[in-house]
Amino acid sequence: MAFTLSADSSESISLREFVDHVSAHVDVRDTDQLLDAADLLRALGNNPSLLADELNAELRTSLNSDSCYTADGYSAQTLLLARGPGFVVRANIWLPPAATAAERDSQRKLNSYQLPHDHDFSFLTVGYWGSGYATSIWEYDPNSVVGLPREHVDLTFLEDTTLPRGKVMFYRASRDVHSQEYPEELSVSLNLLVLPEEGPSAQYMFDPAEGVITGIVPNAAQNRVSLCWLAQHLGNGETADRLDALARAHPEPHLRWAAYRSLLALERSAAEDVLAPALVDDDAFVRTRARELLR
Fold first, then answer.
1. Residue 107 neighbours by CB under 8 Å, 6+ apart
2. DSSP one-letter string for 213-256
3. CB 273 within 8 A of CB 248
4. Checking phi first, is residue 98 left (phi over 0); if not, alpha (psi -120 to 50) or beta?
5. Cα(155)–Cα(178) distance, integer angstroms
6. Among candidates 274, 203, 283, which has minimal Cα distance to 251?
7. pLDDT in tens, 66-111
8. Domains recognised in the chain with CATH numbers
9. Which has the closest alpha carbon to 148: 247, 287, 274, 259?
C-alpha cells in the first residue's frame, strides 16, 4: 500500500548532494533501497533555499534569452529540478481554490484535484512548503485490469491523509490510486520519481463509488497515441510500415492498439489481415479491442 515513512532527519542538504548520493548509492528500481532514501529526501526538503535558488537560476536564464520557451521541464504545476540514472527530482505546486468557477475548473484539470488516478511510476514525496493537500488513497491489482472504459475494478480504500511539510510518503506504480483536494494555502511537494524502465504506460482515472475506470490520464504515452491518430489522416506511403512496426513491437498496449486502429484506417480493405496479430496480442486490452472492432 501507499504508506507514510519514518523520516525525522533534521539535516539539510543541497540538490547536488541529493542527486549525487542517489546516483551513486541508490538503485531506484529496488523498492527497499528507494524506501531507504526517505531520510535523504526529507533532508532535501529541509533545505530552505532549494526552490528559491532554482527559481533564481531560471529567471536569470529567461532574462538572458529572447525566447519564452527556454524553461525546460517547467510548467504551471511542475518544476523539473534534476535528472539522474533512472530518476528525476521535481517539485509540484499545489494552489488553493481560485476565486472564480472557471479558474477553479482550470486548476482542477491542471492538478487533477478531486480526480482519483494512478501513476505509471513509483515515487517518494515529501511536503516542502505550506500545509499541503488532503488526499484519499485506494489500491488495486493492475494484473486484474484490462484497461477498458467503464471496466469494473476492485478498489480497496486505504486511508484519508495529508501531506504537510516534512512528511514523506511512497506511492507504487500502477497500484496506488489517490485523489487530492485543494490545499488551504499554496503548498509544494518534492518528488523522487522513478522513470518507468520501458517508457510511459497507461495511467487511469477511476470512480471509486462505482468501482470503474473512467478514462486515461494524459501523459507521454497518450501523446504518442495522438500521433498515431494524426498519422491516419496525414500519413504517406511510409506511414503504414511505421504503424505496423509500432503495433507489433511497442511495449505499451494502448499505443499498440492506437497503431492498429490507424493502420486499419489506412488499409481498410485488409481489416482481417491488419487485425490478425492484434487478436493474439500478449495484452488483453489489445485482444479485446480487436475482437470488438471485428464484430
1. 95, 97, 98, 113, 182
2. EEEE--SHHHHHHHHHHHHHHH--TTHHHHHHHHHHH-S-HHHH
3. no
4. beta
5. 11
6. 283
7. 444 444 554 568 889 999 999 999 999 898 887 777 777 777 777 7
8. 3-208 (2.60.120.10), 220-294 (no CATH)
9. 287
Task: Name the amino acid, one letter, at 195.
Answer: L
pLDDT in tens, 194-238: 998 877 778 999 999 999 999 888 766 666 777 788 788 877 778
Amino acid at 254: H
Ranges of beta strands (E only) in the chain are: 3-5, 78-84, 87-94, 123-129, 134-139, 156-162, 168-171, 176-180, 187-194, 204-207, 212-216
Q: What is the mean pLDDT of the chain?
A: 86
Cβ distance 278 to 289 under 8 Å? yes
Q: Identify the pLDDT of residue 35.
A: 94
Query: Residue 193 has which C-alpha cell?
Result: 520519481
Residue at 12: amino acid letter:
S
Alpha carbon distance 43, 60 (integer Å): 27
Cell of 251: 511495449
pTM for this model (two decimals):
0.78
Residue 172 is given by DSSP the state: -
